[in-house]
Amino acid sequence: MEIKKYWDEGISYREYLREAKELLANPKNEISEDFLEYYKLGVRRMERVEKQYSPEEKQVEELAQKKFRGKILIISEAWCGDASQIIPVISKFFEQYEIRITHRDQQPSLIDNFLTHGSKSIPIVIFLDDDLNVITSWGPRPEYGMELLAKHKENPDRYTSDDFHNDLQVYYSKNKGVDIIDEILAKI
To answer: Which of 20, 33, 176, 184 has its CA 20 to 30 A from that of 44?
Structure first.
């Protein structure tokens, strides 16, 4: 796996958000109206999370103790509901580090190395050393979100897709990024 190519072609969070807004202003013909709604929702969520998220001091201290000195590469797409809740948190918490985002749908071979139960779920957050070797990865959502998804898959008639998505977004709003950062700190 050649991470350097993806790192070199990666973009900043600001550029990622700008691209999503630009796509909304000038939609491409191949994007359906329904899919454009996902982009609109994603942009609104990212902007809201950016304004509301504030790193917890305890987590900032834990990061300092870990002495992580690498880089962060994220595989994502702006239409993804999980990504719109997670990427602003990671961007703000790890703002002193180099972070780049690569598009899953433009770079399909990278996500193939980070499948979640066989699927190309995003976002995937990859922690790299200074030589761009993979240290660890995290994603596509916190454990509680994975439990909600498992509950939906076990009985989709009783716990519908709508129930799952609603409960997941409520969880993200109430948790305010704490679980995301706790789980990542446990891995690095």
So the answer is: 184
CATH number of the domain that 17 lies in? 3.40.30.10
The CA angle 165-145-171, to the nearest 5 degrees, is 70
The tally of domains found in the chain comes to 1
pTM: 0.93
- The amino acid occupying position 98 is E
Tens of pLDDT, residue by residue, the chain (188 residues): 689 999 999 999 999 999 999 988 888 777 788 888 999 999 999 999 999 999 999 999 999 999 899 999 999 999 999 999 999 999 999 999 999 999 998 866 799 999 998 999 999 999 999 999 999 999 999 999 999 999 999 999 999 999 999 999 999 999 999 999 999 999 99
Tallying the residues shown for the chain, one arrives at 188
Query: Cα(109)–Cα(162) distance, rounded to whole angstroms?
Result: 31
Beta strand pairing status for 124-128 and 134-138?
antiparallel
Examine residue 157 and state whether it is found in any structural domain, yes or no.
no
149 found inside a domain: no
How far is 188 from 63, CA to CA, in rounded Å?
9
